[in-house]
Design a protein that fits this description.
146 residues, mainly alpha, elongated, BTB domain-containing protein, SKP1/BTB/POZ_sf
């Protein structure tokens, strides 16, 4: 589309982490011949965050400077989208980093000693984008149950 973004990434970085990328880049696929993979269902921001994880081995998550105001919902929504992307491309390491970072972002106490909870958008992204019983679904259930 018009808002498509192009990322140039060494093949080994992708295929060593993701079964999806490994198969697409090594099989009898058009992508293997062209050395180009189009991901029309995924947004550029999610892919950019994925590449931060691949190359930086962590995600650029900042501590919340104002714990009385939950400014982390957008951050957690980005993590939820990244987790679903990791699920789709079969990258276990990025999913594990997402879970760890999601917990760090979520477990902040409000001024009234109540934990912040993921909002409905976050829950919908995870439950629509993963299998029932996935680690992130179980984590959301645990967070919302407590």
């Amino acid at each position: 589309g018009e808002d498509a973004r192009i990322f140039t990434v060494p093949e080994a970085c992708l295929s060593s982490r993701s079964l999806f990328f490994k198969k697409v880049l090594s099989g009898n696929w058009k992508e293997a011949e062209d050395r180009t993979i189009k991901l029309p269902g995924d947004d550029g921001d999610t892919l950019e965050l994925y590449l931060c994880c691949v190359f930086g081995h962590r995600l650029p998550v900042e501590p919340d400077p104002t714990p009385a105001i939950d400014t982390g919902q957008e951050e957690r929504l980005s993590l939820a989208k990244l987790y679903v992307f990791g699920e789709n491309i079969q990258d276990v390491r990025v999913k594990n980093v997402c879970i760890k970072t999601f917990l760090q972002s979520n477990w902040k106490i409000r001024h009234n000693n109540i934990w912040w909870r993921p909002n409905e958008n976050i829950v919908n992204v995870i439950y629509k984008g993963t299998e029932v019983g996935s680690p992130m679904c179980r984590l959301l259930f645990d967070i919302l149950a407590h």
